[in-house]
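User: Can you predict the 3D structure for this chain?
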Amino acid sequence: MIFTYNKAHVGDVLMVIVADSKNQEVAVEKKGQVARVYLEASGKTVAWNIFEASEIAEIKGNGQVFLSDEAVAAFNKVLEAEGFTEKLENDKDPKFVVGQIVSMQAHADSDHLNIYQVQVGSDKTVQIVAGAPNAAVGLKTIVALPGAMMPSGSLIFPGQLRGVESFGMMCAPRELALPNAPQKRGIIELDDQAVVGEAFDPQKHWTA
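Assistant: Here is the predicted structure, written as structure tokens:
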């Protein structure tokens, strides 16, 4: 789940993104201070809007925010009080991490895409489809994992590119809105001292 909050531009509303609607028709069910957004065809919940959110629990930051377990429990009590049976789940794992490309193969249905296996933790490897011209086996870079919100506001979900599953995105400096980022294609190239799985820290991992 992706928690987002921007009081100045949206109001005192905690927005919770549960799943990608994939441009399907959605409907809204509102009870009290909670609105559930769901797919019309299946009834599957794709988002929640919780109004007057700061009166329920403390929220720090703008854009994608990370909540304490106590805050999530407080929001779940509100959902229950309004008659909803589903619960919010708290995922506090970092969504932008150091990854290392361990293998690559050409995409059979593209002249510029490749299929990469990228290690993003000591025991975790994900498949990512990308077309970065500087991607190579052994390169360490920054990976946006499913559940990440980019500075542009776009969300990272598992998906497919030309029929091949992809579970994240290797990031270019400009995609992360880094200072003095070169305005050209190409993912971030980290030095070999970067630790795979470590949360991205611009002050530590980026030098223009």
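The helical segments are 7-10, 69-81, 202-205. DSSP finds three helices and 13 strands in the chain.
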